[in-house]
Q: What sequence folds into this?
């Protein structure tokens, strides 16, 4: 049991270190180096071999090994269908499928164990935490006394100058000389869009941040180790 505990700690340290660095680079450049996922997958493979040759082995969790290729294939399909936000996010989830295929045994954590593969629990937690962003935006706008619906749930107001320098999408557009809300902003030339506002003398605009999914994925990783399956907890509370 002690040896498995050390393996779980190693998995947590590796995942934590790589995901926090990937989150940092994603915030700064909206990119995460591919080498990170090769390192994570490689170390995950080594830890699997160490566990296999340990006295405890995989125990009653050996069935979860089959979910490694299933999870990798499913994530690849999600990426092709554009159900995952970016290539780095997909590669991170594939690497996590190898690094953490089993629920950790660290003390009594996670508090709510799931029957799902642990990498799926991380993904599920990340999505739930990502959905909390609108609440955060609303609270932020409330403090700024900029409560315009539904803008306040999907963005915030900044100057045109700031918008040109940040990773954001305008959620307003000039249509027939009037400002209109764009609920689903598309990738476009932000400079050209902002010029339209400047021509009308508009100095501030509502924007939505390009939040890298790597950040909620990192948060979901930590939550999975310390709390467990958030969706399971929610279902338990409701039912």
A:
């Amino acid at each position: 049991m002690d040896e498995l505990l050390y393996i779980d700690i190693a998995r947590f340290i590796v995942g934590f270190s790589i995901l926090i660095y990937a989150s940092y680079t994603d915030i700064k450049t909206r990119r995460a180096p591919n080498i990170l996922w090769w390192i994570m997958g490689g170390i995950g493979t080594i830890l699997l071999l160490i566990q296999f040759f340990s006295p405890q082995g995989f125990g009653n969790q050996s069935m979860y090994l089959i979910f490694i290729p299933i999870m990798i294939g499913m994530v690849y399909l999600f990426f092709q269908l554009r159900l995952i936000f970016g290539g780095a996010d997909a590669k991170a989830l594939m690497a996590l499928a190898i690094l953490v295929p089993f629920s950790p045994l660290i003390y009594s954590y996670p508090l709510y164990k799931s029957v799902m593969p642990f990498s799926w629990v991380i993904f599920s937690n990340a999505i739930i935490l990502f959905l909390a962003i609108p609440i955060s935006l609303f609270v932020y706008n409330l403090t700024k006394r900029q409560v315009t619906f539904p803008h306040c749930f999907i963005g915030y107001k900044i100057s045109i100058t700031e918008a040109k320098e940040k990773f954001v999408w305008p959620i307003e557009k000039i249509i027939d000389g009037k400002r209109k809300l764009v609920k689903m902003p598309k990738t476009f030339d932000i400079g050209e869009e902002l010029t339209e506002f400047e021509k009308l003398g508009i100095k501030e605009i509502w924007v939505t941040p390009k939040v890298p999914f790597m950040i909620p994925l990192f948060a979901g990783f930590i939550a999975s180790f310390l709390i467990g399956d958030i969706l399971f907890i929610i279902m338990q509370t409701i039912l």
